[in-house]
Amino acid sequence: MSKLNVFEMVSLDGFIADATGDMSWAHRHDPENDEFVAENSSGDGPLLFGRRTYEMMVSFWPTPMAAQLMPKVAERMNARPKLVVSSTLEAPTWNNTEVIRGNLLETIAARKLQPGLDLTILGSASIVRQLAALVDGWSLVINPIVLGAGLSLFADLPAPLPLRRTSTRAFENGNVLVSYERA
């Protein structure tokens, strides 16, 4: 069976973007963080995005600028299979991209039953909320900032999610990676 994992950059108050949709506060470049990002991108499993996150990702990762700034990450992001949930995206331009239409919960539940590589949701708060009951692992990079308002990762969850912490890692830049699994 495959697992479904979530990887998110969040503010201390649980937002993945500020009130204007900006996420620049979550992207701190320093050697330790850049090494972690490169290591973390080394998997081969499919990445799962909502349409807006997909559009943001495709506007950066296949570009020469991404290859110059973060060559290892750009190579992995471009090589990995990508699933984008959309009823409007007709012809994805990023290589290895498949569009998911129809019942998202049923589609992902069926994929999890198949042997293969684990799926990882990046960004895409609405997709995280829709699939929260299916998520096996949560990796949250908590940034030392309080936004007060923005796009909440956890707003309107249909039920509480009891979790068990599996690991913690503190970074020199103030970020803390906390990983959880279902309790």
Describe this structure in words.
With 183 residues, this protein is an alpha/beta fold. It is globular and about 40 Å long. The longest helix has 10 residues. The strands form 2 sheets. Strands 5-4-3-6-1-7-10-9 form an 8-stranded mixed sheet. The protein has a two-stranded antiparallel ribbon with strand order 2-8. Strand 9 and strand 10 form a beta hairpin. It has a single domain, classed as Dihydrofolate Reductase, subunit A. The model has no long low-confidence stretch (mean pLDDT 93). The chain contains 6 helices and 10 strands.
Instruction: Classify the fold: give the CATH topology.
Output: Dihydrofolate Reductase, subunit A
Counting helices, strands and paired strands, the structural category is alpha/beta
Helix fraction by DSSP (H/I, runs of at least 4): 25-40%
CATH class (first level) name: Alpha Beta
Strand content: 25-35%
User: Termini, distance in Å?
Assistant: 19 Å
What is the fourth-level CATH superfamily? Answer: Dihydrofolate Reductase, subunit A
Q: What is the number of helical segments per DSSP (H or I, 4+ residues)?
A: 6
Q: In CATH terms, what is the architecture?
A: 3-Layer(aba) Sandwich
Largest sheet: 8 strands, mixed
